[in-house]
Amino acid sequence: MKTKNATGVGNAIDRVEGHLKVTGEATYASEFKVENKAYGQGINSTIAKGEIIGIDTSEAEKLKGVLKIITYKNAEKLKTFDKERPVLATDSIAPVLQSNKVHYYGEYVGFVVAETFEQAQYAASLVKLKYKEDATARFILGQNKDKAYNPSEESDHKRGNLKKGFSEADAIIEQTYNTPIEHQHPMELHATISSWNNGKVLVYASQQIVEDAVISISGTFQIPKKDVRVVAKYVGGGFGSKLNVERHLIMAVMASKMVGRPVQATVTRSQMFTNTGLRQSNIQVVKLGAKKTGELTGLLHETLAYTSTTQEFQEPCGSMSKMMYNVANAAVSERLVPLNLQQPFSMRAPGEATGSFALECAMDELAWKLKIDPVQFRIKNDTQEDLSQEKPFSSRLLVECLTIGADEFGWNKRQQKPRANKKGNWLIGYGVSAAARAAPFNETHAKVLLNLTNDTVTATLQMDATDIGTGSYTILAQTVSDCFNVPLEQVVVELGDSDFPITPGSGGSWGAASYCNGAKSACDNAIAGLKKNRNVPKDEDVSIAELLKMNQITSYESQSLAKPDSEFEKHSIFSFGANFTEVWVDKDTAMYKIKRMVNVGSAGKILNPKTAYGQVIGGLTMGAGMVIAEQTKVEPNFGNFITRSFADYHVPVNLDMANVDVIFLPEEDKIANQMGIKGIGELGITSVAASIANAIFNATGKRMRDLPITPEKLLMAEVEDGVTV
Amino acid sequence: MRPFTYTGTTNRNEALKAFTTTSHYLSGGTNLVDLMKEHVEQPDQLIYVKNLQYNGISKNKDGSYTIGAMRSNADTANHKDIRLYYPLLSMAMLSAATAQIRNMATNGGNLLQRTRCPYFFETSMPCNKREPESGCGALNGVNDQHAIFGYSDNCIATHPSDMCVALAAIGATVEVQKVDGGSRKIDLEDFHRLPGDKPEKDSNLEPGELITHIHLAKPELSNHYAYVKIRERSSYAFALVSVAAGFQIEDEKISKIGLAMGGVAHKPWKLIEAEEFLLGKKPIESNFGKAAELAMKDAKPFEGNRYKVPMGKNAIVRALMQANNIGE
Ligand SMILES: Cc1cc2nc3c(=O)[nH]c(=O)nc-3n(C[C@H](O)[C@H](O)[C@H](O)COP(=O)(O)OP(=O)(O)OC[C@H]3O[C@@H](n4cnc5c(N)ncnc54)[C@H](O)[C@@H]3O)c2cc1C
Ligand code: SF4
């Protein structure tokens, strides 16, 4: 699309919703003015496996303001799972309080409704539960490898002859990489206000995918979809945790029906650890073989992860290993172990964030073994064909990302030998990694309403898309502004309401591409319709105001959709990137700082460099968090998480972080979709951890294969064989 | 949160009079209120003491300083005389928490902040400190943040304060008002205690005693000083291990020294043997290394915190080296 105006697509404009946000006027889920609402608070189990054998609510019931205490004994009957451990999806049902069984520590076992939030919280703490504990509970992945099973035959990928591949190799490395449980922790707590009216329920909620929330609620309560309306106007971050409906929402909907009043439920920050999803821990084995000259001959990537005992989810750690390099012989597989821990689900770049850590560290290990420059090693194994799908890439600028990044970063100053670059107490290291993230594009519907008053056209776009803090409002306003060639001020974007046309929601890096193409199709459809009515040739340049006048109307409505075409299906469609990191490690304290990062991405058309930059910076920081400190620690005897607040679940602070340079390569991938857009939200986090870990190796000579790389681990680690201290 | 009554006063005697055994003094609230939200502390009454007139910083005749218990950590650490005469204290205090928390937190509250042991915070877990006789969850659980010195089978927790580590190195006494009106002074070394068979007791304060002042020893360690804090991120994290070191040099030898460690025991851990070893010695790396060996020789780590022994040694040497270089 040609940029016709200074605020259209491609311009780094400020967020259109920015002012509303900084002035507090943007309404998040718990901020809608709803009359007469009551407050609900979930009660969490304090055992990991067993049965509830007694409930004493007498003390809690005596408290002023308490309206209802719901447990499995008096809860409404909901749809429950009809098979063992069904796969968790974004539209899954979310039954809760349906039996006296406890499956993990922190599971909801009750819900208290009271006049105020404080009363509900206090009452919840007074409900006394008696349990019969089951001592067979299991918590630690590494200790239960024998319980592993294959969740789906299709996810196993094999090509070529791996044995032969490794026999042709001059050098082989085989290593195990561990990543811990992590939590998404969007800034906005999960929250809902639910109210029933004439058999219909209105749910204000913090959800990434409005349509799937509707499906989930209607499925759980067994009511028609048309009786459920979900509104998520602003979402204060999701990172995957708000893809599906969590159980506080179901309890609020249930409670609202039982007390006959709207019920608000906001989970606490510590319940964000126990009840709103997490990234599962993984144990990954990667084996790579290559010729002296650097050609890869074999790749094995096996992942072991945990799932809960009630539902199944596997983040696809092998997804990048399947398609990244030109290696004829490969095997990629994933296995699960059911544990008595909270059900895992997607967290930003599920699979890629963690899988890339294993793959890209292994690539660095093999490059070092072969004494080949790790940038060159990756370039040598570039491929323009996705060997796992046997399809060409729609576009792949990985080599450009690597070479431009290396230039920008000053990679040529890197010492190949670890511990060779020192300054005072500091050991300085450089690291690189390559990244790829699928760039999905999903069917998206949109509606535009045109209004002409005094020669001025206002275009209102409506879709059930969400803005999870990424800037959807802004890029959609830019798209509409471009399509009708009207200034941004004449565009109104209305999102996040299930009364609007259906979109795939925000997640999986499909939002921007899907939303914008959907919006464009509705706009194009409006123009085409107006032209057709008056027999205006398709390519004639007539302003939208003129078109409305010619039609002698002051308002017009058009709805349309965009979806992948056959070219899309014939290609493998990914965004690519390269990360370069300089890290300074204190030789005695093992504390380290990320001094500099250069990130180069090729992610199709950049709709707004400012919001795109924000996405990548956020991704890089989250990737750095994986290395610096993020981890949820499991108590080995009781199965609770001992990291339970931001005081002990550490995310990076400003001082840890770097000067970050983000470069987008100019690219418009018309095979991906009409507007040439690819996803960017998850590319930013992918492989970041590896580039830092590789820099730490270059600095210290220590291979850190367990995330996070804390000072205590780094200090205790041995220098690799062959590195001179 | 459990309901409680709140008594606000600007009058010391009123505060003392209001005290009952189920009361807590509330100062900055950065520790107490958190623990109340977690139902770990369940007072019936909060007596707000931050407005009592104990927020000054004054110089005594002998050149030493007295700091008020209700003064904020930020205002103490940034006071010009503290920066000049007690730079080690200032440095340690500024390494703690975040600017926002330091603005709220007070010196008295800092002395009495409770352990960060995760079992202490989770009321469903066994913890002798929170609930005597319930057991120690950390002993056979996650104990990577725990003590390597001075613990008992009843409790292996550490005292989390940075300020107190510097105070231990410098030397200080804590002045308290008793409920009956009298006052007494407690040497900092005797203020905090080891867990023994009473891990529920962090300090030797009697119920109702109100901290009013901290008297600092004469400022004799301000030329060569360093606070080294090793932690999991560059700010807003408690120490894995920390070292406060201050010394003076006369005739190229160490003539006066204060050394203490944090993150290793139930109280700020004075490194007495190392101090004695270094007195009269040259401030050189080999001596520092020997002192570090001495300091750590009796360490008894657990499964999860073995790292604290080498880390502790490195931190001691680094702190002493850094202190030595500062004067040059
Ligand atoms: C997230 C987080 C991170 C932190 N990181 C660090 C860190 O890195 N290093 C560090 O050293 N500290 C850290 N802190 C702790 C902080 O320093 C303490 O919470 C603070 O110093 C306590 O002071 P306060 O005035 O807020 O105490 P309060 O919370 O008001 O009180 C604490 C206790 O002291 C009692 N008390 C208070 N004043 C008096 C008095 N005058 N007389 C008698 N009793 C009194 C109270 O009754 C209560 O039992 C952190 C805290 C938080 C929340
Ligand atoms: S170490 Fe102390 S505080 Fe921690 S669980 Fe044991 S008794 Fe409680």
Automatic annotation (TrEMBL), chain A:
<feature type="domain" description="Aldehyde oxidase/xanthine dehydrogenase a/b hammerhead">
    <location>
        <begin position="23"/>
        <end position="135"/>
    </location>
</feature>
<dbReference type="InterPro" id="IPR000674">
    <property type="entry name" value="Ald_Oxase/Xan_DH_a/b"/>
</dbReference>
<dbReference type="Pfam" id="PF01315">
    <property type="entry name" value="Ald_Xan_dh_C"/>
</dbReference>
<dbReference type="Pfam" id="PF20256">
    <property type="entry name" value="MoCoBD_2"/>
</dbReference>
<dbReference type="Pfam" id="PF02738">
    <property type="entry name" value="MoCoBD_1"/>
</dbReference>
<dbReference type="InterPro" id="IPR016208">
    <property type="entry name" value="Ald_Oxase/xanthine_DH-like"/>
</dbReference>
<dbReference type="GO" id="GO:0005506">
    <property type="term" value="F:iron ion binding"/>
</dbReference>
<protein>
    <submittedName>
        <fullName>Xanthine dehydrogenase family protein molybdopterin-binding subunit</fullName>
    </submittedName>
</protein>
<dbReference type="InterPro" id="IPR036856">
    <property type="entry name" value="Ald_Oxase/Xan_DH_a/b_sf"/>
</dbReference>
<dbReference type="GO" id="GO:0016491">
    <property type="term" value="F:oxidoreductase activity"/>
</dbReference>
<dbReference type="InterPro" id="IPR037165">
    <property type="entry name" value="AldOxase/xan_DH_Mopterin-bd_sf"/>
</dbReference>
<dbReference type="InterPro" id="IPR046867">
    <property type="entry name" value="AldOxase/xan_DH_MoCoBD2"/>
</dbReference>
<keyword id="KW-0560">Oxidoreductase</keyword>
<keyword id="KW-0500">Molybdenum</keyword>
<dbReference type="InterPro" id="IPR008274">
    <property type="entry name" value="AldOxase/xan_DH_MoCoBD1"/>
</dbReference>
UniProtKB/TrEMBL annotation, chain B:
<keyword id="KW-0285">Flavoprotein</keyword>
<keyword id="KW-0274">FAD</keyword>
<dbReference type="InterPro" id="IPR016167">
    <property type="entry name" value="FAD-bd_PCMH_sub1"/>
</dbReference>
<dbReference type="Pfam" id="PF03450">
    <property type="entry name" value="CO_deh_flav_C"/>
</dbReference>
<dbReference type="InterPro" id="IPR005107">
    <property type="entry name" value="CO_DH_flav_C"/>
</dbReference>
<dbReference type="InterPro" id="IPR036318">
    <property type="entry name" value="FAD-bd_PCMH-like_sf"/>
</dbReference>
<protein>
    <submittedName>
        <fullName>Xanthine dehydrogenase family protein subunit M</fullName>
    </submittedName>
</protein>
<dbReference type="GO" id="GO:0016491">
    <property type="term" value="F:oxidoreductase activity"/>
</dbReference>
<dbReference type="GO" id="GO:0071949">
    <property type="term" value="F:FAD binding"/>
</dbReference>
<feature type="domain" description="FAD-binding PCMH-type">
    <location>
        <begin position="1"/>
        <end position="221"/>
    </location>
</feature>
<dbReference type="InterPro" id="IPR002346">
    <property type="entry name" value="Mopterin_DH_FAD-bd"/>
</dbReference>
<dbReference type="InterPro" id="IPR016166">
    <property type="entry name" value="FAD-bd_PCMH"/>
</dbReference>
<dbReference type="InterPro" id="IPR036683">
    <property type="entry name" value="CO_DH_flav_C_dom_sf"/>
</dbReference>
<dbReference type="InterPro" id="IPR051312">
    <property type="entry name" value="Diverse_Substr_Oxidored"/>
</dbReference>
<dbReference type="InterPro" id="IPR016169">
    <property type="entry name" value="FAD-bd_PCMH_sub2"/>
</dbReference>
<dbReference type="Pfam" id="PF00941">
    <property type="entry name" value="FAD_binding_5"/>
</dbReference>
